[in-house]
Give the backbone structure.
Amino acid sequence: MTRADEHNVQLMTMLRAIIKHFSKSSYATACLQRERNLAGNDAPVNALQKIGKTRFGTYWMAANALDPCLPSIRSLVIAGTIKFKVVQAFLAS
């Protein structure tokens, strides 16, 4: 496995963990919506999509849905409002 492959696996693992966290936590979703509203973005957060088995297309769609939310998620992680087991250090840096 090359370094690029390892990096891609790590990114897919983090993507899956973030999506899973928000799909199971209504508190985290509400905090994310509040943070996005404070940032001036009133679009709903329900665009976050679950990832299917291992299809590239579902990872791509999930990453595109998550991309606009990442600055708000990062702010929440730095503030300590939400915590992830897998991606805490990555988003806080």
